[in-house]
C-alpha cells in the first residue's frame, strides 16, 4: 500500500520556499474519497497568511530572480523536468488517493507534464516585442518590449491538479513572474508536494508559494490583494464572478476559466468504433469531473437507437472502484457534497420527463464508504431540462436526438456555456462547418479532451476568458510597453507630440 510523508500529519503552507504553519492554527481534514478516511490535515489559511506569501513573492520578483537571463530560466525548467520525471509516480499515487482519479490515468499524466515543461522551457527564449513601422518620421524608431507582469495569484480547482498547474507555472517561470497558489480544499497535497519538488530542482526562494485554505477566505484575499498584479482563476462560474469583482480593488488583470456544458455531436456517418468509447469517456473520464465533459450528447436520429445500445453496453462494462486499483476505469466523486449534488440531478431528471437507461445509483457494498456512482445515461432528454442545462460534474450523459445538421448546430449552441465541443463524422466538410459555427473555445473532431500546452484551450460565454496555452499564453504574463525612440538628435522631429504634427 502506498504511504506518504504527509499522511496523518498537520501540513503547513509553503511560503518563501519553507513550510509555514497557519497563522490561525486551524486545520481541515483531507479525505480519501474512495474510503472516507482522513489522509492529512490541511491548514485553513487566513488573509494574514496571504499577506505573508504575497510579500515573499514580491520580494522574489524584485530580487535576483528578476536578473535571471532566459537561458537560466530555461535551465531551471530542465532541472524541473528531471525532478518531476524522477518523482512523478509519487505525485500520481498521492493525487489518486487524494482525489480518486484512477492510478492508470494519473500515471499517464506524466507524459503530459513532461511535454508541458519542455514546451514552456522553449518559451523562455521566445519572449520579445516587435519593431513597428510608424507615420511620425524617418528619424523615429518604434517598437514594443515585454516585461513580466509581477506577482500572480493562482486559484486552482481540485479536479486535475497534475494537469492544471502547468499552465500557471509555465507562464510564471518562463516570463520571470512569481506566484502565490491557492489550491482547492480537496487537492492541496498534490500542489504542496509538487511545489516542494520545484524547490528541490533549484527554484529561488519565494518564486512559487502555496497558501492552503477556503476559497471565500484565502481565494478572496488573494483576488482582492493590492500587491497582486494578475489573478488567474479556474473553477465555477459562481466563484469566478466573485473573483472578477474582487479584482477591481487594484484593477488587476484577471483571467477566469470556468465551467461548461459541452456539446458532443455524433452524426450517423461517424466512425462508431471511435465514437462510442469516445462519447462515453468524454463524460466518464475522472468520473465526469472535467470542465470540458461532453455531457450533452447529440446523436443523429437514424443512428440513435443503435448508438445508445452500444453506449449502454460500454457503460455497463466500466469497472468502478478505488482509483488506487490498476484495473479501475472510473473512481469515486470527490466528496459527499459532490455526491449529493450529482444524485439530486439524477433524481430530478425522471420527473422532468427524461428516461434513465442505465446507472443512476450510488454504489454500495465494499464501496459504500466512498462516493461512488454508476455511469449514468438518460434518453428522451429535451434541451430545456435541468440535466441538459446545468453543469452536473458527474458521470451523467444526456442523449438528445437530432435530424439535421442545422438542428444539431442550433441545439449545440443553446447553452450559456462555451468551453468544449466535439463532432464525430467522416465528412470533413460537415466537420469544418461545425468547427466554424459551434460556439466553443476548444473543439475536437473524432476525438475528445486532447490537450497540448502549445495549442491551449479557451472559453466562450460563461466559460470564461483569458485562455490557457497556445500562441498567446505568454502575453497573459507580460506587460507590453510601446517605445518611441527619436534617434535624430536634431530638430527634424519635434521633441513633443510628434504624432500630432499637422
Ligand atoms: P470552485 O469554484 O468551487 O473552486 C475553485 C477554486 O476557487 C477553489 O480553490 C476554491 O477554494 C476557490 N474559491 C471558491 N470561492 C472563492 C471565492 N469567493 N474567491 C476566490 N476563490 C474562491 O470549483 P471546483 O468545485 O473546485 O471545481 C469545479 C469547477 O471548476 C467546475 O465548474 C469546472 O467546470 C471548473 N473547471 C474549469 C476548468 C477550465 O479550465 N475552464 C478546469 C477545471 C475545472
Automatic annotation (TrEMBL):
PROSITE patterns: ALDEHYDE_DEHYDR_CYS, ALDEHYDE_DEHYDR_GLU. The active site is at 257. Pfam families: Aldedh. GO terms for molecular function: oxidoreductase activity, acting on the aldehyde or oxo group of donors, NAD or NADP as acceptor. InterPro entries: Ald_DH/histidinol_DH, Ald_DH_C, Ald_DH_CS_CYS, Ald_DH_CS_GLU, Ald_DH_N, Aldehyde_DH_dom. SUPFAM superfamilies: ALDH-like. Keywords: Oxidation, Oxidoreductase. Residues 23-483 form the Aldehyde dehydrogenase domain. Gene3D superfamilies: Aldehyde Dehydrogenase, Chain A, domain 1, Aldehyde Dehydrogenase, Chain A, domain 2. Belongs to the aldehyde dehydrogenase family. PANTHER family: ALDEHYDE DEHYDROGENASE-RELATED. This is Aldehyde dehydrogenase.
